[in-house]
Amino acid sequence: MEIFKEYIKKRISVTDEQLELITSSYTPTTVKRKNFVLRAGEICNFEGFVKKGSFKIFYLTPNGEEHILYFAIEEWWISDIASFNDQEPAQLYIQALEDAEILVISREQKERLFHNCPQVERLFRIMSQRSQVASQHRIIAALGFTAQERYLDFIKRYPKIYPRISNLQLASYIGVSQEFLSRMKRQILKPNK
Amino acid sequence: MEIFKEYIKKRISVTDEQLELITSSYTPTTVKRKNFVLRAGEICNFEGFVKKGSFKIFYLTPNGEEHILYFAIEEWWISDIASFNDQEPAQLYIQALEDAEILVISREQKERLFHNCPQVERLFRIMSQRSQVASQHRIIAALGFTAQERYLDFIKRYPKIYPRISNLQLASYIGVSQEFLSRMKRQILKPNK
DNA sequence: CGTCTATTTGAATGTACTCAAAAGCGGTGG
DNA sequence: CCACCGCTTTTGAGTACATTCAAATAGACG
Predict the structure, then answer these.
(1) Which end of chain B is more exposed for a tag (fewer CB within 10 A), N or C?
(2) Looking at domain A2-107, which of 1.20.1260.10, 3.40.50.10320, 3.40.50.12780, 2.60.120.10 is its CATH number?
(3) What are phi and psi of A48, to 5 degrees?
(4) Residue A190's pLDDT band (boundaries 50, 70, 90)?
C-alpha cells in the first residue's frame, strides 16, 4: 500500500486519518498475465490503481484490429472512464501483460469517498487533467508525426514501458504494422543502406 | 450569463448563492475574428468558457504545419491546461474563427473559487473526464481509421461545428491535406467515377 | 468588376500496408 | 545437451492510400 500512499501525498495534502480513509476504500487484487479485467460490452464497475505489473488498454475494431490506447504500469490507473462514470457498456478491453497487483474501487465506494473526503475530488481532477494533456500530445503525434517520429517519441517519453512490451504491442500503440516497425528499427540502427 | 448558469446547473447541484459566487468569478470578454487569445511560448493565465462564437486550438510544428486539436464553440472551454495549471510556457495557439464572447477566470481566482465552493472541483473533474473520453476516441480514430472514416466521424459527431468551419480547418483537424479532403468529398457524393 | 482567398483537379511520388515466407529465440522434454 | 515446438521478429515483393507541387476554377467581398 506504500506506493499508493506516496502517490496520494505527492498530489494532495491530507491528514493521516484521511489517508487511511482513502486507502481503506480500495481493495487489493491480483491479476495473472494475459487475463482480462475488462472486456468491451461489459459495464466497467471498477477503477484500479496499478501497484505492480503492466496492462494494455485497447480498442478492437469491427474487423478485429487491436488499437492500444495506453499501457499502464506502476502508478497508473486502469478503467473505462465513460463506462465507469455513466454505467454504460465499455468500449475498451483491459488485459494484463505481466502478473499484476492492483487496488480497486467501485463506483459506490468512490462516491462515498468523494463525500467523506472532498480532497479526493481534487486528486482526480488533477489526475484527469494530466491524462488530458498526455492525450492531447498523443493526438498531435498521431496526426502530425511520421511513423518514425511516433516511435522515437514513444521510447523517449516512456523509457520505463518500452523494455517491457513486445514489438507487436508497440506497433499497435503507435499505429503501424509490426512489419513496418521492424523496418523502421533497422533503418534507425543502420541509416545507410 | 444565462447559458453559463444553465451549463453549471446541468452538471452539479448548487444553491443560488453558490451559482452567483461562481459566475461572479468570471469576467466577460469579447474577441474579434482571427485574434489570438493565446500563443505558444506565453504562459496561459486564463481559462475561458465560450458564450458565443468559435475558436480553434492548435499546435504548430517546427516546420509550420498547423494541427488543430479541437474546435471550441458555445459551451466549450478554451485553455492550455498544462500551461494554466503549472505556469509553464504554452504549447498551443488559440485563435477566434468568428467574433466571440467568452467568460474568463485567472489561476488565482479559480483557486479561490475551489476553496470557497468545493463543488466546482467536482464540476471540473467531470468536465475533464468527459474531455478525456473524447480524446480517447480521437486517438482511436487517428490511429485506426482511414481518412474517409475520420471525415465521416467528424461530421457525425460535430454536426454543429461542421458548417461553421472551412475545408482547410477541417483537413487540419482530421489530419489530411486539404487537396485530399476535397477528393474525398467528391468521392462520397459521387461514388461512381 | 477585380482582387483575394478557398476549393478543386491533375500528375508524379512516397509512405506505410498486405500477404507470404524465412529466420530467430526461448522454453520443454527426451 | 540437443531437438523440437510455438511465438516473435525480420525480409521480400507488390500495392494502396495519401502527399506534394503546380495550376485551374470557384466564391466572397469591397
Answers:
(1) C
(2) 2.60.120.10
(3) -125, 140
(4) low
